Amino acid sequence: SKPPLYNDKHIQIFEDRIRFKSWVLPWGKKDVKLSHIRKISEKNMGLFTGRLRISGSNNFRDWFHFDAERPTKKKAIVLETDFKIYKRLWITPEKHSTAFSVLKKLI
Predict the structure, then answer these.
(1) Span 8-31, mean pLDDT?
(2) Are β-strands 30-33 and 17-20 bridged in parallel, bridged antiparallel, or unpaired?
(3) pLDDT(25) > 90
(4) Burial of 55 from C-beta contacts in 10 A (0-12 / 13-18 / 19+)
(5) pLDDT band at residue 27, thresholds of 50, 70 and 90?
(6) Closest CA to 107 of 76, 86, 75, 79
(7) How do strand 62-64 and strand 88-91 relate by DSSP bridges?
(8) Are 50 and 64 in contact (CB under 8 A)?
C-alpha cells in the first residue's frame, strides 16, 4: 500500500481514507473513507467550541478524536460526512495547514 500523504501522531491521510490513530482513547484506531466526506472547512475553536474537549462528543453530531493538546490549538479542520451520527468530525492535526491542503486536493 502507498505511504500516507500526511502523517502525524494522531492522523494519517491516504489517497482514499483518513486513519485516526487515536479515535477515542490513545489506542482506538479508525479508518474513515474519503468517499464519505462531503465537505471540509476550517473552524476556529473557542473555549466553548471544542478547545477544551480532549475526546468524544457531547451530542450526536460532532466527534473529536483524542488529542491531549487540543486546548492549546486554535483551529480545527471539520469534515462533513454522510454518516448518520457524528456527521461532523473535528480533526486537529499537528500541521494544520499541510493537512488542510492535502485534504482539499482529495475531496
Answers:
(1) 88
(2) antiparallel
(3) no
(4) middle
(5) low
(6) 79
(7) parallel
(8) yes
Listed in sequence order, the DSSP H helices in 1-107 are 96-106
pTM over 0.85: yes
List the strands of the sheet with 37-44, edge to edge: 37-44, 75-81, 88-91, 62-64
Cβ pair 37, 81 in contact under 8 A? yes
Q: What is the mean pLDDT of residues 39-54?
A: 89
Q: How many CB atoms lie within 10 A of CB 84?
A: 7
75-85-4 Cα angle (round to 5): 55
Specify whether the CB–CB gap between 102 and 9 falls below 8 A: no
Q: Look-up: residue for cell 495547514?
A: 97
